[in-house]
Amino acid sequence: MGIKKVKANTPGRREATFDDFKDLTKFTPEKSLVMIRKRQGGRNSTGKITVRHHGGGAKRYIRLVDFNRDKFDVPAKVAAIEYDPGRGARLALLHYVDGAKRYIVAPVDLKVGDQVMSSKSLIEIKVGNALPLQYIPAGLPVSSVELEPGQGAKIARGAGNLVYVMGVEGKYAQLKMPSGEIRLVKKECLCTVGQASNPDKRHISLGKAGRSRYLGIRPTVRGTAMNPVDHPHGGGEGNQPIGLRHPKTIWGKPALGVKTRKKRRSNRLIVKRRSKRK
């Protein structure tokens, strides 16, 4: 992927940068691997907004991506590199020798015509192949990593993400996460060799509010800019501080740094916590 700039005809285009899509080889999705995305606008089945700032956006299809890579020991040829509106990374369309077609998250340097395979045993360690962590050499970057065997990829699926295999000892492999955290994952978990594609995605600047609306992101308004009836932080003439003992959510519950999870989380599989931001 490359990033392009355009003429600054308007203030919004002056800072905006765009994807040039030069790495794509096919611009229409595979019909058998898409489904219609029903837009909920952040509402649940009763019509109540449960996720704020969602709504609108361009119409799109959901691509059915194979995160399990469970078609073992069957060779597949990369037929195309495609765009997915639902994620930053590119998709690779695989044509298996038995006639099946599937999408996977494409790693960097995977090209049309390459042959890939997934297996539970040791196979050639090359970009695009999926195999258990126990066969990955130390220091090799991988992506689309499972947390539990057979569960499907959960880690390092986003554009440019990668995980480093630090080593394998006993029942577990040590992984260095994108956050810097080092944790243990069962060595039978599958991973895809190579970094997830489209690492330049993080450098794209939307440039104007309208491009956020195209993505289905509605405006986020500060509580201090609202009226008292709308938010605990609201009210006052001009710019006023919060005025309360603690920051609150729109529903009056404590916010900013307050633990919200009731589930007890174990540190048993975490070797080193991610470093705190300064």
Structural commentary:
With 278 residues, this protein is mainly beta. The protein folds into 2 domains: 3-202, Nucleic acid-binding proteins (OB fold (Dihydrolipoamide Acetyltransferase, E2P), Beta Barrel); 226-278, Irregular (Ribosomal protein L2, domain 3), CATH 4.10.950.10. Helices cover 4% and strands 24% of the residues. The strands form 5 sheets. Strands 9-16-10-13-14-15-17 form a 7-stranded antiparallel sheet, with no helix packed on it. A 4-stranded antiparallel sheet has the order 7-6-5-8, with no helix packed on it. Strands 1-2 form a two-stranded antiparallel ribbon. Strand 14 and strand 15 form a beta hairpin. The longest helix is centred in the last third of the chain and has 6 residues, at 209-214.
Brief write-up:
The protein contains two helices and 17 strands. The protein has 278 residues and is mainly β. The strands form five sheets. It has a seven-stranded antiparallel beta sheet with strand order 9-16-10-13-14-15-17, with no helix packed on it.
Question: Which keywords apply here?
Answer:
278 residues; mainly beta; OB fold (Dihydrolipoamide Acetyltransferase, E2P); Ribosomal protein L2, domain 3; 17 strands
